[in-house]
Amino acid sequence: MKKIILIIGFLISLTACSQKEKTEINNKKMDKSQLTPENYVATMLKEIKQYPSEPMYYIYVKNSLCVYEILVNDLPVRKQFSYEQLGSPIYINDAILRSGKQKITFRLYPAPEEFNSAGDKFPANTSFKVDVHFQNQKSLNKEGDDAKVAEFNLPTKTRMAGANKNVEIKEFIAEGQKYYEGSFTFESTVPYKNQGWSNGQNLAKLDPKKVEQKVIEFYKKQWSIYNKKDKNAMYSFLFNKEKEVRQSLFYNEKKLKDVTKSLDEVFDLPNYKVEPLQDYKMVFYGDGRIVALEQKSEDVRLKGESALWGFDHDPKEGRTAYFHYRYLYLPEGKTLDEFEIIR
After folding, report:
1. Which of 239, 197, 215, 209 is nearest to 336 (CA)?
2. What residues form DSSP beta bridges with 107?
3. 76-127 pLDDT per residue, tens
4. How close are the terminal C-alpha atoms of the chain, in Å?
5. Considering Cα of 26, then 28, then 32, then 34, what sign does the dihedral take?
6. What CATH number does residue 65 fall under?
7. Is the confidence at residue 167, as pLDDT, over 90?
8. Residue 65: C-alpha distances to residues 28, 116, 296 (Å)
9. pLDDT tens digits for 24-61?
10. Which of 86, 171, 214, 267 falls between 20 and 30 A from 143, CA-CA?
């Protein structure tokens, strides 16, 4: 589970669970995919393979006069709607299912008007750069352990300036617009092969009302888990998602124990309360094979966040917000009553 502390004091807990929903889990015979808080680490250690090379891919972003969303293979990896520069890397292995060509998509929006003389439009000097890096975890601190494998800069147009019109000035091609989207690809090599959402049905081609109805039902059941603080029920959804994500990140026992602490956190907070499931919209990812409910709010603290969230009301520390992500997919041959959480 990742945590991000925003400058406005929100603590975002990015949690997600995976495996198709099972009812009356306490009355069913346990199998290898029936995780519990007690067997999580041991089960994952049996599933995660170790390799001589453990390649990690990550990106650095430099942005000026814009905010952004970044998706890898059409899965969100960063939504940055507050205007600031981030110096830390964004790891993307969990969005890389197997070796080969990977696609990075970025969606840009003008920076807030207090930072932008062009108001709600892109100024000419808007800039945005993405660097893709590779690192072998098995050779850390050795020569060549961190290498740039790709980079992308915004396309520009040239304006001639100066008294003799002989000075070239590069300007963003989307100057004056309110939105810009682009993409590029890079090649990656990883030792694992994850199925992910690759065998999922294209939900965008199904009846949107029926899809939304079933997605809402799924989220309501998830909401009930947090409302009742039913930790065991939450873990019962974890197997497929956790097996793939932790494999892609090559987790060891220590890191897996840290995962359980993060997953357990809100269940152990005496003052945590899940917020009502409302004011959301249905959004498709994964080229139509992933669906989620996200908040409609334009508040930068909430925009694009999961509709499943809550607050811990600590008398001394104040309020801490936790967002629980549920990226759903529907395997081929399954009905709309059989959504699974994949990331």
Report:
1. 215
2. 69, 181
3. 999 999 999 888 999 999 999 999 999 999 999 999 989 988 889 999 999 9
4. 11
5. negative
6. 2.60.120
7. no
8. 54, 6, 23
9. 333 334 455 689 999 999 999 999 999 999 999 999 99
10. 86
Q: Do 150 and 248 belong to one domain?
A: no
Its pTM stands at 0.87
The gap from C-alpha 290 to its chain's centroid, in whole angstroms, comes to 12
Bridge partner residues of 185 (DSSP): 103
Determine the structural domain holding residue 207 and report its residue range: 2-49+195-341
- What backbone phi and psi angles, to 5 degrees, belong to 69? -125, 145
Looking at the fold, whether 243 and 307 belong to one and the same domain comes out as yes
Last residue of a domain, which of 163, 188, 213?
188
Nearest in space to 99 (alpha carbons), one of 184, 186, 188, 185 = 188
User: Based on the domain organization, do 169 and 237 belong to the same domain?
Assistant: no
Domain count, the chain: 2
Contact 343, 313 (CB under 8 A): no
Rounded Cα gap, residues 183 and 107, in angstroms: 9
Digit-coded pLDDT (tens) for 247-262: 999 999 999 999 999 9
Question: Which 3-state string (H, E, C) describes 20-54?
Answer: CCCCCHHHCCCCCCCCCCCCHHHHHHHHCCCCCCC
